[in-house]
Amino acid sequence: AQKITQTQPGMFVQEKEAVTLDCTYDTSDQSYGLFWYKQPSSGEMIFLIYQGSYDEQNATEGRYSLNFQKARKSANLVISASQLGDSAMYFCAMREDNTGANSKLTFGKGITLSVRP
Amino acid sequence: EPEVTQTPSHQVTQMGQEVILRCVPISNHLYFYWYRQILGQKVEFLVSFYNNEISEKSEIFDDQFSVERPDGSNFTLKIRSTKLEDSAMYFCASSEQGRLRTEAFFGQGTRLTVV
Predict the structure, then answer these.
(1) 3-state secondary structure chain B
(2) Selected residue of A45, A90, A107 to mutate for chain B interface (largest B Cβ count, 10 A)
(3) Which of B45, B101, B107 lies at the smallest CB-CB distance from A104?
(4) Given B100, B105, B107, which is nearest A95 (Cβ)?
């Protein structure tokens, strides 16, 4: 089974509007972390936001917030006030606690976001 | 701001040749990783490294691959005999800790093209 599922096709949003990028995950661990990374066309991976499984509040970082619904195993990224520079591929990733002290990230397939002027 | 540095940014090599991809992790980080991304696909874990040994490797990381930390700053990925299907973007990442909360910082990647 896929650990991280991102099924949305390419997403489009009008500049200055908000957009939600979906992510669902699968784990049997009680302790895990969820991450979102941005990959612009230049190729680098940029960390955006983190949510821990035990965090009671949804994470926020500037214009990014994470809508964490633990029972549904979803961790959707919300980008508010979209900017042209937000056009990129967005990856959801998970770190599980059972893989030891040096736990790896498992990524989803990514979602392409295009911001329209 | 400290960053992970990878060289070269792009490498073209002939099938069967050896390549070494280089990375300089962030200086106070102790945990190192290699990931790869075949064009248009998801990022896949290759190997993690801590305390001068491999912590975990994926099934992609077969005998053709090796990693090394030859000195206090560099972290290298060697592919002994490249195949066409090794063509991908290779990312090095490092983190201060290996724990859940700690984000991994990625380098800009090395695009490897095997011809």
Answers:
(1) CCCCEEECCEEEECCCCCEEEEEECCCCCCEEEEEEECCCCCEEEEEEEECCEEEEECCCCCCCEEEECCCCCCEEEEECCCCHHHCEEEEEEEECCCCCCCCCEECCCEEEEEC
(2) A45
(3) B45
(4) B100
CA-to-CA distance for B81 and B96, rounded, in angstroms? Answer: 32
pLDDT by residue, tens only, chain A of 117 residues: 679 999 998 999 999 999 999 999 999 988 899 999 999 998 889 999 999 999 889 999 999 999 999 999 999 999 999 999 999 999 999 988 765 556 789 999 999 999 999
Place of tokens 């976001």: A113
Q: Chain A 5-34, CB below 8 Å of chain B: which residues?
A: 31-33
